[in-house]
Amino acid sequence: MKLPENVKYILNELYKNGYEGYIVGGCVRDHLMGKEPHDYDITTSALPEEVKEIFPHTVDTGIQHGTVTVIIDKIGYEITTYRIDGEYKDNRHPEEVIFTDRLSGDLSRRDFTINAIAYNDVKGYVDLFGGIDDIKRNVIRGVGEPAKRFQEDALRMMRAVRFSAQLDFAIEENTLNALKENADLIRNISIERIREEFFKLILSDHNERLDILLNSGMTEHFLPEILDKKFDYGKINSLSRDIVVRLAYIFYGIEWGNVKKIMKRLRTDNKSMAAVTLISKYTDYEITDLYSMRKLVSLAGENIKRVIEVMCAVKNCDSEMYFNMLEEIKNDCCSLKDLELSGNDLIETGIRGKLVGEALNKALDYVMREPQKNNKDILIDYIKGVF
Ligand code: ATP
Ligand code: MG
Q1: In what order do the strands lie in the sheet with 75-81?
Q2: 154: which strand partners?
Q3: First to last CA, the chain
Q4: Per residue in 239-284, pLDDT tens?
Q5: Neighbouring residues of 36: CB distance < 8 A, sequence distance ≥ 6
């Protein structure tokens, strides 16, 4: 395996100082699958304090779990001391972290065989649980006894489904049965951690694996609203890799007020919550002419392209025509801020109170019907005629 120079340097420094060091987890898995790893995690027999003595630039990113981040060329490499997890009492956190000097201990606390392979240039691959075979067979299999592993940390069940969708792997039968039997334990996991795995699943290329989640018994605990839905998975996979778009499509048919409640329950950021809710509101909007397109732009604002994408996905229509219309109106006034008429202009003409707002909206509607009329004098004349 060809390691980046910085990684080689780290492993070599550990070795020179009398410690073992291996790359482990996602980077080894990705490499074996022919993909470029996005980061390199390192596991070592050195204790955090010892790692800090060897490398000049380190940050204590997760020192309580034994993780020190070594910074080289502004890139961070997480180095974690071999550990075995202490007893788990609440299906989520080990009571204590116990360091060990054996790689085998560290590998056996990892979730799936495909994530429990270590590698360095001296020893080659250390694959104690048949992870390489499972990668070849496209299988996700728990390390050890899956039921016990899910009881220790229930998030692993969500991770199983998420990896299945990201890698397009099946979940091995014994692991899947254990998952279904222990699904209720997901209630012990915080919504933030569930959401993170769920979003990774939705953003993957294999949303058909969402079926596993829907049939698992876990979904009822955080998203019962989608349980009875039938999805066109190919369609979801073809949508932009934009969580807002994908969620709005998945939530189609749920009343927008309830969509907002779902987003609140998932504790998403406010911007995403507002965007998904807004798209839900307008997915069934009918665009019939340029005026209705301008009107939709005024309602959707910066989310207009997302609205069109979801709308077309739902209707099974080609979005190109709508994007062409959008291009055609791109210089037209579709918001009060682009209107050549201000509240003060209206006050000067004698309009007062809440009529000012009404008049501005009337003028905007007029301009969206006839964009060439966006001119202060024309608009004042128009408003005088109406009020
Ligand atoms: P990704 O490409 O999504 O980052 P990854 O395999 O690196 O995939 P991480 O969540 O970054 O996944 O975790 C790094 C490694 O730590 C995993 O490969 C696995 O060995 C171990 N791990 C992470 N979370 C758990 C868990 N809940 N239980 C057991 N082992 C875990
Ligand atoms: Mg990772």
Answers
A1: 58-62, 67-72, 75-81, 41-44, 21-24, 118-120, 124-126
A2: none
A3: 77
A4: 999 999 999 999 999 999 999 999 999 999 999 999 999 999 999 9
A5: 30
Give CA–CA dist 70/46, Å, rounded: 13
Q: Tokens for 186?
A: 């997901």
88-129 pLDDT per residue, tens: 778 887 878 899 999 999 999 999 999 999 999 999 999 999
DSSP labels, 107-136:
HHTSSBGGG--EEETTTEEE-TT-HHHHHH
Contacts of 349 (CB under 8 A, 6+ apart): 380, 383, 384
The ligand 1 atom at the shortest distance from the C-alpha of residue 155 is: 27
Contacts of 93 (CB under 8 A, 6+ apart): 153
Q: What values do phi and psi take at 343, rounded to 5?
A: -60, -40
Tell me the two tokens of residue 375.
């001119």
Residues with Cβ–ion distance below 5 A, ligand 2: 26
Q: Which two tokens stand for residue 189?
A: 């996991």
Burial 43-72 (b: 16+ CB within 10 A, else e): bbbbbbebbbebbeebeeeeeeebbbbbeb
Q: Supply the DSSP string of 186-246, one letter for each residue.
A: GGGS-HHHHHHHHHHHHTSS-GGGHHHHHTTT-GGGT-GGGTT----HHHHHHS-S-HHHH
- Distance (Å, rounded) from C-alpha 340 to C-alpha 335? 10
Question: Which ligand has the minimum distance to the alpha carbon of residue 144?
Answer: 1
* Distance separating alpha carbons of residues 246 and 158, to the nearest angstrom: 19
Distance 9 CA to ligand 1 centre (A): 23
Burial of 41 (0-12, 13-18, 19+ CB in 10 A): middle
Is the CB of residue 195 less than 8 Å from the CB of residue 268?
yes
Q: What is the rounded CA–CA span in Å between residue 375 and residue 341?
A: 7
The whole-angstrom distance between residue 219's C-alpha and the CA centroid of its chain comes to 17
Give yes or no for residue 115 CB within 6 A of ligand 1.
Answer: yes
Tell me the best of 22, 24, 40, 110 to mutate to test the pocket of ligand 1, counting ligand atoms within 8 Å of each CB and taking the most: 110
Q: What is the pTM of this model?
A: 0.94
Phi then psi for residue 122, to 5 deg, are -80, -50
